[in-house]
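Problem: given the chain below (254 residues), write out its structure.
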Amino acid sequence: MTHLALIGQGAIVRALLPALPGLCVERVSVLARPGRAAAARALPGVSEAVEDVDALIALGPALAVEAAGQQALAEHGPALLAAGIPLIAASVGALAEPETEARLRAAARRGGSRLHLPSGAIGGLDALGALAGSGGVTLEYQGTKPPRAWPPGSPEGGEIFAGSAREAARAFPKNANVAAAVALAGPGLDATRVHLLADPEARGNRHHWRAEGAAGRIEMTIESTPAPGNAATSLLTVHSLARSIRNLTGEIAL
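Solution.
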């Protein structure tokens, strides 16, 4: 049985909590935002909540999951990794900032731990990573979501962004984590071309990527239901985090 730490208390955490008993998690500690510990403590399945990362580390979790945004990963991730606590990060786009990536890597080395990047709302990253290893890979990603999923003031339809995955992750920190994950599995954040679109007819979030390399060509499209209470996040992301927990705590990982 595992003592799990959760960073955040938003839509992803609330959707993830009911799945934890089936993942052999016996104790759940939450790192809440200042002034929100009482609300986090009231969530079903939460054992305790604190508002300071050092207090969270002192509770002795065996594994941590970040689900609170890029800033939270940049702020709290290094301390957890340096303390030897493996960390699953939902906000993959935080690695678009070279300084953040360097701090996370250095902390993991110091603590003998590891930062795990789940596939989130997309699939096929294992095959994409293998293709990238063959050399000469080109990769293009397209993310389409309903207008309500994009920041206020964004166009109601059509393309709202075109550029590199690094630029996308910086410009849309709540919407481009999939773009960052695909890029990191492929040729990298700067070499991956990204298109982000708003579609008034979209019922959910659509992710499409196409890659070519020396070993072949791969194309994948996934349409995911939005997470309850957060149109910008795919429900598949919640189940991807659950799968990552299962892989890190179970006897067999797939």
